[in-house]
Write a structure and sequence with these properties.
392 residues; 19-stranded parallel β-sheet; 11-stranded parallel β-sheet
Length: 392
Amino acid sequence: MDYLVSEKSGAAIQQAIERAAQAGGGRVVLEPGVYLSGTLYLRSNIELHIPAGAKILGESTPERYDDFRHPGFDAVAPEGSRKCLIAAAECENISITGGGEIDGNGPLFYDRNVPPGKFFAKPPHPRPRMVQLYRCRNVFIDGVSFLDSPGWSFWLIACEDVHISRIRIIGCQQMINNDGIDIDSCRRVTVSDSFFRTGDDCLILRAIRRSPEEPSICEEVTVTNCVLDSACQGIRIGCPSDDTIRHCTFSNIVFRGKGNGIVSVHPYRYLRKECCGYLQVSDLCFENFDIVSGGAPVVILCEGAIRLRGLERLTFRNFRVRARRPFQLEGNAATTLSDLRFSGISGTIEGDVPFIARHVSRLNLNEIELSGNTGELPPFERPESDSWESKF
């Protein structure tokens, strides 16, 4: 059954959601127009349908958003914010569909008094995320454009059976922390046929631990047929204090951006308190990538003495690249990268070193055709020499 919303307010949308939920479920349909809104809560068996011509516009002050609270979630609040525009916890069979827009009013949450092209300054107040789903099942997101989220556009936490397709996530690239989709400790997630332009990372796999007793596993994620444009990273895999990320695939990806293509970088500054490193990443495949990068195509890096449980069985196949910096694979004495396979890699790297590998075990390279452009030739300067060769 359809529940039509004509009053242009978030309160009217929420009332329609509650009526549909009380009846056992239904489709909440927005009429064309702009709906100014604070936090909206989805319920089980609800489809929020935002047709072309309809827009949910987020309020421009943090006070108009609720703090997301739920048992088991409260241990972690990235960027010091629990606020979000669209929320759901322990729901099933929820959908956001249509050709319309959700606009987070993102730039209004930042200090924009910065030089042209520089990141906006982070404000002291919390910035809301756009969509935050916790322990939800059977989630379907299709067709909607998500614009200018003040924080992460999506944070999917411990969700299962999530299907996202044909969406656009577009944010001002001067905003920091406006990630595309953070897939955190989820199982069976698909993302396809979508476009991302963000100031921060476009697609992120995480396994954030909420307590030592509760394992966090991110697995069986498939991303295909997407175009990414990021000022930071196209794809980020994990942080050093995360738990386990495994059995995921990325295919048919075009990356264009100032930042790096694919990263799994683990510096000291990302470590949680009393942690020397914990993450395990295994059995990931990246296939059919076209990368034009102002950074590096692929960076896998463990800083200093950070000790991870493993970065292993990673496959990179059929890449065309043009980048400023080289492929970089660097473990350390405590964390050796193992069983990395690169095949069908071609392209051009600015600089004279196209590929770096240190602290790597069982590195398999096949059909690699990379050129390192040396740039401008330095002036010829002959130093004074006492060698006999210089006397002739």
